[in-house]
Amino acid sequence: MAIKADIYHVPVLKTESVDGLGISPSGVYVDVTFGGGGHSREILSRLGPEGRLFGFDQDADAEANIMDDPRFTFVRSNFRYLKNWMMYYGISGIDGLLADLGVSSHHFDDAGRGFSFRFDAPLDMRMNKRDGMTAADILNRYDEERLADVFYLYGELKNSRRLAAAVTQARAAAPITTTNDLLKATAPLMKREREKKDVTKMFQALRIEVNHEMDALRQMMGAAIELLKPGGRLAVITYHSLEDRIVKNFIRSGNAGGKVAQDFYGRTVSPLRAVNNKVITPDDAELESNPRSRSAKLRIAEKNED
Q1: pLDDT digits (tens, 9 = 90+) for 1-42
Q2: What order of strands is seen across the sheet that includes strand 28-31?
Q3: Which conformational region is residue 179 in: left (phi greater than 0), alpha (psi within -120 to 50 degrees), or beta?
Q4: CA atoms within a 13 Å half-sphere pointing along the CA-CB vector of 182
Q5: Taking the model in full, what pTM does it have?
């Protein structure tokens, strides 16, 4: 069943992020997180007849939101393959790229996808339902140490080792296959005053591991820097510290680790320069109409002249 775009996902910081791209009517742009198409529609509204827009999404559900516009090309793929697909379409340089890294409202609200602990559902969490391990596979196959690493690195949970031990103990009696199975196994370790926050972090950690989100982000950012024309813009919306740190490092230094190179005179050398030194966050009106935007941070950068 087709899902209306405005229900699939309400775009966050739509005007601010597209403004940040400084759209040229004849330019070539990429929306690497197409989703409900809200940001893409805004970009198209500012393009002239010669402009082009590519929209990436690996979720088949997003295809219901594709616009019938000759300037738009939908790419059913993970954005980590950005460079490959641009080569395929004969694009050697782009004028701007937008990335809204948050999980769409659709994913959280679709009970069958297992992204939310609001529903008792199979622990899937795959953005691409056609491929890869599910969250249940990870919970039942990873050894205790590897599970602890996932909870610590991607959920920043201080009790990661105890959570991993609780999972391995529970699965010894019966496989953990649903959200309720996981909640039941870890409930004794969740302090009441932090329960919702820590459960959210646990689900976040699993989602990141299932979808290899950090690796994909690093690959996409590296490809974006290569593809951007001098003066081209990058607008990235992040929602948690892990992805924001990677984006900030790339803008500051051109690499994920944040290692800054210097020229002969000791001046910082980077392929990008930050357009907004202070992150842009949603205003009160957006926060009220779209609570999911509360943790959003927008960073805008420009490719330096060669």
Answers
A1: 344 444 556 789 999 999 999 999 999 999 999 999 999 999
A2: 72-75, 52-56, 28-31, 94-100, 228-238, 297-303, 272-274
A3: alpha
A4: 28
A5: 0.90
